[in-house]
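lol ok so funny story. i was supposed to be doing the assay writeup but got distracted and ended up predicting the structure for this chain instead. priorities right. anyway since i did it might as well share w the group, maybe its usefull for someone
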Amino acid sequence: MIDGQWLAGIGIGFLAGFINVFAGGGSLLTLPFLIFLGLPANIANGTNRVALLMQNIVATGSFKQMKVFRYKEGLYLAIPAIAGAIPGAFLASSIDKEFLENFIGVLLVVMFLFVLIRPERWIKAKSSGSTRIGIPQIITFFFIGLYGGFIQAGIGFFLIASLILVAGAGLIKANALKLFIVLIYNLFAFGVFVLNGQVDFLLGFVVGIGNMLGAFIATRVAVRYGPRLARIILLIGLLFSALNIFDVLNIF
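and the output, tada:
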């Protein structure tokens, strides 16, 4: 990498880390950048996990320091999600990709409209207290894991929705728990990419520096300015991701 590419990698990583804390879809920036630098798509995907791990370690640690969530809550929800991800990975080869992407796009649009029209469910939800953990939550997060096992697109948005509407978390707490659950996911996924030799650690570290900085600042902004700002960024992220899936933006 030349000096300009290092700076660009950190800058793009910063934007991705900031966006991922509030909503999701930051990889829509980092993956094309890594591919632009000459990495094959599979290695870019593995390399991006380095940045995501760095980002989520900083973000969850920062949220935990500010007492936004408890690790115990995240682990209870992550376990059924991981259990679902295993059979989900085997389903990947039998699902029509084009149909699935269009279905995801429709779900993102529906969620966008729901967040837009019914803001009270997202803004006024409690941000403190214990998250509900029972049979409905275990079943929900098993299917979230099933979905995440065979395709990653939109998983952050669906995690936020499930954490708020099913588990009863507020928007800021939902974002914190989402990042923790995704961190657990990526620990497993990252190991697979490493074993297959599909990680460029140097590029991943450079982009990860930006991801960490963006995530650290975003956690402070989220707690300081609250769910109203988070809702706006969530709406932008939903619309951005839906337009990309329907090839309106043609990012991929």
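Residues 3-245 form one domain. The chain has one domain: 3-245.
back to the writeup now i swear
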